[in-house]
Structures are given as C-alpha cells and as structure tokens.
Write a structure and sequence with these properties.
The protein is of the alpha/beta class and 326 residues long. It folds into two domains: 179 residues, FAD/NAD(P)-binding domain, CATH 3.50.50; 108 residues, 3-Layer(bba) Sandwich (FAD/NAD(P)-binding domain). 33% of the residues lie in helices and 25% in strands. The chain contains eight helices and 19 strands. The strands form five sheets. Strands 1, 2, 3, 4, 5, 6 and 19 form a seven-stranded mixed β-sheet that branches. The chain is elongated, with a radius of gyration of 27 Å. The protein starts with a strand and ends in a 5-residue tail after the last helix. The model has no long low-confidence stretch (mean pLDDT 94). It comes from Actinomadura luteofluorescens.
Length: 326
C-alpha cells in the first residue's frame, strides 16, 4: 500500500469512531481516522454513566482515545471529508485524497435547538437534554422542562426521579386529559402559556413566559431536534428508513463495505453505547476484510499452481523435443 492507501478509513473521531479504529489497528489493519474536530458534546463539562470514566471531561476522553489509537499505528488526520466515491476514495477539503478498502462513518448528529432566547447560550451546561447524563448533577433542584416536542411529557415524568420540584412548561404543546392526569399523579406541575425566554446570567435562573411571569428554575431540560450528519452515507446510496440510515446489529449498511456507528444511526446512543457500537463494527468489518484476503490468497495460490503445471508441461515437452527421452 502507498501512504494514502488504507484498509479502513474512519470518518469521525468521537467515541464510536475511535473505538472502531482502536480495535482495527490492534488487528494490524492499516487505518486512517479523519475528523473535523467538532464533537457534539463539546459544550458539556463532564460525561456520566461510562464505567471507569464517570465524570471525565469529554475532551479528555477523546485526547486519551486519540493517543491510544495513534499508539497502534493508525493515522489521525485533522480534516473535513468533502465527498466519498464508491470504492472508496475519500476526498478531503483542501484536495487531499485517501483510498480505503472499507469505510466506517461515525459523523454523529447535530442538535437543532428551538429558537427560544437563552437556550443556545446555556446548552450543555444547565439547559440540558438527557436525564441519565445530567439528572444526578441537578438532583433536588427546581427543574423545568420546555414543551417543545411531544417527548417533553415523558421527560418531565422521568425527571421526578431526581427532583420533587419539576415543572413542565406547556409552551406550544397541546396535552390531552390522560397526559395531564399522569403529570398530576406523578407530582409534576404544569404551567400553561408560551415560553418567552430562559432567564440566565452565569447560570439558569428561571423561565419567563410571554405574559411576563418568570418561574424560578435552576436547570431546564428539552428535546432538541436531532439531525444525523449522514450526507456521506446517503451520497453513497445507503438506504434510509424513518429518517435513519439502515444498519444491521454490527453497523453494516446496505452498501457493501460501508459501516455506520454512533449517533449518525442511533440518536439515543450515549458515549459508552457509541464506543461499543464502534467495537462491534470493527470486529465485523475485520471479518469481512479477512474473507476478501483469503479469496485473494486462494486466487494467487491457484495462479501459482497453474503456472507451475504449465512450466512442468513445458519442461517435459522441451525435454522430449530435445531428444532427452531416447
């Protein structure tokens, strides 16, 4: 292989991409990891729920991961992928080109936030999404849930496990009687009216309604619209169903040789889940490469045998014609 030819190109260096690269590099595959340096969880100070890494800053995890992957000989390339051609030719912004036998796409997703003032400014700090990621850190505090999506009701019911003071701000949601009863039974207070802004300075102070009333809160939860960064996958023709690229349990897509892992295919995947997805994909992908390697070796072996037989016949014929058989 030349310097720009690899067994596997991994696009995206979050937990999923790095773990895939780690397993493949340890399997002595030639791996290139291309990443633009824009992790989804960059605003978060800590990550939780990852055994042995609980409370670790996300950036620190990625630093350790990159060092481990590089230690096994993988190439780490800081760049944005512009396009991938079938085959696979990976074209980077700026003109560089890589070629690979297989492709792992771990480009994640982007959180599309509602246009409520104060939300983007505090996102990942005390305007939050995942109770399992952040609920313990804001336990026993006054919490709010913004009714920006149908999932807000479930989110509010779930958050009662962490606080006795949870308010669901209906905002633009239209709740039916059963939902209202469930909230009341669970002890979640419902505040009607459209949300004007999240009040914050160095931290969240409350939620202001369009009528001018402010309800004091110390943290606010909401469901963003999660948009997968799957343009590379769809550009290669990978099938999409219900807004997600279709994969099997290992991350294999409908396009031969292409795997997709992490939030690009599963918006619910947390860091530890994404890392596991990367590992599973790497093992399946390596088995796929092994099959190809064995078939190539068999073809070469048969070709050598065929040449040997031809040479033997030629030598016998030359010996016969030269009179060696008298």
């Amino acid at each position: 292989m030349s310097d720009d030819e690899y067994d596997v190109a991994v696009v995206g260096a979050g937990a999923a991409g790095l773990n895939a690269a780690l397993v493949l590099a340890r399997a002595r595959r030639r791996v290139a990891v291309v990443d633009a340096g824009e992790p989804r969880n960059a605003p978060a100070a800590h990550m939780q729920g990852f055994l042995s890494r609980d409370g670790m800053p996300p950036a620190a995890l990625l630093d350790v991961g990159r060092a481990e992957v590089a230690g096994y000989g993988a190439a780490l390339i800081g760049a944005r992928v512009e396009h991938v051609d079938p085959g696979f030719t990976v074209r980077l912004v700026g003109g560089a080109v890589l070629s690979a036998r297989r492709l792992v796409v771990a480009t994640g997703l982007r959180d599309e936030l509602p246009g409520i003032p104060g939300v983007a400014e505090r996102w990942g700090r005390d305007v939050l999404h995942c109770p399992y990621c952040h609920g313990y850190e804001v336990r026993d505090q006054p919490l709010g849930v913004l009714g920006t999506s149908p999932g807000a009701v479930h989110q509010a019911l779930l958050l009662r496990q962490w606080s006795e003071d949870v308010v669901l701000f209906a905002h633009t949601l239209e709740l039916d009687e059963e939902e209202r009863e469930r909230l009341t039974a669970r002890g979640v207070r419902l505040v009607e009216g459209e949300v004007k802004r999240v009040v914050a300075d160095d931290r969240v102070r409350g939620v202001e309604l369009a009528g001018g009333r402010t309800v004091p809160r110390r943290a606010v939860f909401l469901f963003p619209r999660m948009v997968p960064r799957d343009a590379l996958l769809t550009g290669l023709g990978c099938a999409v169903e219900d807004g997600r690229v279709v994969t099997d349990r290992t991350g294999r897509t409908t396009v031969p040789g292409v795997w997709a892992v992490g939030n690009v295919t599963d918006p619910r995947a947390q860091v530890v889940t994404a890392a596991g997805m990367g590992s599973a994909a790497a093992i399946a992908l390596n088995a796929d490469l092994l099959d190809e390697d064995v078939h190539r070796a068999m073809d070469q072996h048969r070709a050598v045998d065929q040449h040997r037989v031809v040479d033997q016949h030629r030598a016998i014929e030359q010996h016969r014609v030269g009179g060696g058989g008298r």
